Amino acid sequence: MLLVGQKFPDRRLTDIPGEIFRELTASDFGAGLAPGSTVAVGVGSRGISNIDVIVRAVIDYWKSRQLVPFIFPAMGSHGAATAEGQTDVLAHYGITPETMGCEVRSSLEVIDLGHSPEGIQVFLDQHASKAAGIFLVGRIKQHTDFAGKIESGLYKMMAIGLGKWAGAKNYHMQARRLGLEAVIRSVGRQVLGSGKILGGLAILEDAFHNTAKLAAVPAANMEAREEELLALSKTWAATLPCDLDLLIIDEMGKIYSGAGMDTKVVNRGVEGEINPWPGIPHVERIFVRGLSDRSYGNASGIGMAEIITDRLAAAIDNNATWLNVLTATTPRCGKLPIHFPTDRECVERIVPTIGKPDFTQVRIGWIANTLAISPLALSENMRAEIEANPRLTILEEAYELPFGSDGNLPLDAFGVLAAAH
């Protein structure tokens, strides 16, 4: 294996709180609200860089306007679809009443906002519904399940996040008929029609998942603005650098993607499709070694892997996983792959299924997770291809896959390697 670095532009912002205050002040959010009014700030469950810093700056802005903000989890079935679980998800991101200086109000209860023109019953978090206004904090990025002009972002948060589990179940079911983008737009417009949405703060991350752009998005032009921001975000997205026969992934989980692994990195579909996304590298087999502790046993997306370890299988909470995949109407994502006790056995068992009798010709890649794909390890048989690619740099010379005496690879090899490079 060769340790390889990928070169992506570093777009990180240096003053996140200052940028947020400037953006929100320029948009004059809250101008129509009486002093002392409550503002519900919706925060989701994804592993967004600097999310605690971002949310605290948003809370401080609303306080500066003599308003009373509180935070609520804008999540569907995450946190095992319980109020306590969703509070715990936020706490693990550093978002608590103590750190944010305001209440966190969590409930799965919703109110009915009627039916959209497309016939979809629409729901809204009950705590948020009682506030004078609702403000959303969310990242705009590609969705794991489909490609469109609006994918993951503020509009999706207005739909599935604000609708809680009741909404998530209904909207994903309707998506089987209409398509998820159409449902997100339909439900989002109905929620906007309630008059409760003030707008949101859109977060864009660069290829290294640094906070790269923070944009105030007023409710009045949320749909068009989100389309523009998603188009920009797609141009910044990181991908694997080349086709692979075997991709080894140290860890999957909800902290990295709604599907456990970013489908547009591993080139998989949540319905079991293999290499459905054009324009990104082909991946023949996927071996996943572990499940993040911060996924709370939810292994949604595990069905996209061909092989896993026994320890990953043992870490799965079937209730949390099955609840998520059934709510999302993607039951194939919950299928348990073949598994063996050690990393070495998993590699040795899966490689013959690739169809290359000469093992030295198998193209192997190894990453920490689908949010961290630089540095990565690539097999030495790709050296000429790596050296010809100006995006890639060999950081360390060839080494054997470092299986220990127990047959396993190091638990945090890439944490150490990333720090060194």
Secondary-structure blueprint:
Elements: E1 2-6, H1 16-27, E2 38-43, H2 51-64, E3 68-73, H3 83-92, H4 97-100, E4 110-115, E5 121-125, H5 126-129, E6 133-139, H6 154-161, H7 164-178, H8 180-192, E7 197-205, E8 211-218, H9 222-236, E9 244-252, H10 263-266, E10 283-291, E11 307-309, H11 310-315, H12 318-327, E12 338-340, H13 343-350, E13 364-367, E14 376-378, H14 383-387, E15 392-396, H15 413-420
Parallel strand pairs: 2-3, 2-6, 6-7, 9-10, 9-13, 10-11, 11-12
Antiparallel strand pairs: 1-14, 1-15, 4-5, 7-8, 13-14
Helix pairs in contact: 1-2, 6-8, 7-8
How is this structure best described in words?
The protein folds into 2 domains: 9-236, LarA, N-terminal domain (Rossmann fold), CATH 3.40.50.11440; 239-420, no CATH class. The strands form 3 sheets. Strands 12-11-10-9-13-14-1-15 form an 8-stranded mixed sheet. With 421 residues, it is of the alpha/beta class. It contains 15 helices and 15 strands. Helix 6 (154-161) crosses helix 8 and helix 7 packs across helix 8. It is globular, with a radius of gyration of 22 Å.
